[in-house]
Design goal:
Layout lengths: L10 H80 L5 H54 L2
Helix pairs in contact: 1-2
Length: 151
């Protein structure tokens, strides 16, 4: 009879077990809550980036759409100038020496007109590419928005 025994009520032990379980569950829940908050913040920052890209794209498209008009104005002025040069080069009062002097200038102006035409074509191609990028960004944005709507 060397063994000693003691009777202990089990209800305080059960309460301690329940509290430990509750603490364990709430710590996991708070970590999940923090993770969810971080995901939401990431989504918000993604949304801000997408909005900024769309806004920048629209501004860039507006600026680039002004370029062909300005190039057309420049081409018009160049054509007028070329006509003045051509008429001055062909007038009878102009000597042969001045025709020879003016011919390189006329050639250079014609070359510049051709380069400006190429610039207009490049501008148009850029506008087309920006239109494609804009459509793709909108599609990605809509997919992203739809994906987040179901979460």
């Amino acid at each position: 009879m060397d063994d000693e025994y003691e009777i202990i009520p089990t209800s305080p032990l059960r309460r301690l077990e329940k509290r430990i379980n509750q603490v364990e569950r709430t710590s996991t829940t708070s970590e999940s809550q923090r993770l969810i908050e971080q995901i939401i913040e990431l989504i918000k920052s993604n949304q801000r980036i997408i909005d900024d890209v769309i806004k920048s794209d629209a501004e860039l498209r507006d600026e680039i759409s002004k370029v062909p008009g300005k190039i057309d104005e420049l081409l018009g002025s160049m054509h007028e100038f070329m006509e003045i040069l051509k008429t001055s080069a062909t007038e009878e009062t102009v000597t042969d020496i001045s025709k020879d002097v003016m011919q390189p200038l006329v050639n250079k102006m014609t070359e510049m007109i051709e380069q400006n035409k190429k610039s207009v074509e490049v501008g148009q191609a850029t506008l087309t590419s920006l239109g494609i990028i804009d459509k793709r960004l909108k599609r990605i944005y809509l997919q992203f928005a739809n994906t987040n709507a179901y979460r």
